[in-house]
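Worked problem 6 (solution included).
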Amino acid sequence: MGLVTMKYEMKRAMKGGYAVPAFNFFSFDNLVGIAKAAAEKKSPVIAMATTGGIKVMGEKAVVKMAEGISADYGIDMVLHLDHCTDIELLKRCVDNGFTSVMIDSSKKEFDENVADTCYCVDYAAKYGVTVESELGHVGGKEDDIVVDDMSVMFTQPEKALEFVNLTGIDCLAVAVGTVHGFYKAKPQLDFPRISAINKLIPGCPLVLHGGTGVPYDDFREAIRRGVRKINVGTELKVHGVFDPSVAGYNDPASKQDPRAVSKLVIAKVSSICSEIIDVMGSAGKA
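Solution. The predicted structure is:
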């Protein structure tokens, strides 16, 4: 047991008709909670380090931490670099042992996005590392937009086919109505668009970003239509790490023993992940 590539897990998910849950982690406690849930549910799991988190923890430390935790819990784990716009950072992560990376040049023009993605695919291929890229633009909290304003930024099926053929990526993140962070309105996923993209590129697993706050029935429908990886980050950050009632910051014991806080964070993160694993249909698939 240990670190595996996302390509390995995606092949199994495509065959099994489920999605692999992908959780952002920001600390040791956060990652342990993710691993605990995956072990208890016997689920494949993708642990995603953010670029901001890596700047705090360091890419080498993140790799060693993921290797140790996956071994301790007896699970296979994909260690994924999430939403990286810095190609040099991406290369360092590949060099140091990440098994999957995402190059995000989705805000650039199509040709520039293709060029950046091709470069990263070629670089990662030397190490057998999986590459994810994004086409279209998944909005977020910082963009101050609601889902209904976003249709012009959605992934176009024909462009998705062209993009995959030109780049040879392993997974494609699509913009179909989700946003990063919490929603200002009820999300409206474009299910026909998911189906249309999947029909054109059946061999390339689709990724849904912005999973926090999406109704579980919508997750299930997206999975039925071809989504094989779903990202969840904000929920773990807000409800699993920073919620004072969860973390026990007001408990006198925690002021003298930080391990008390760690145990509560691990338990809460594990609980959130376990629930999402059940929705993904990945329980028992490890």
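Discussion: Confidence is low (pLDDT under 50) at residues 141-148.
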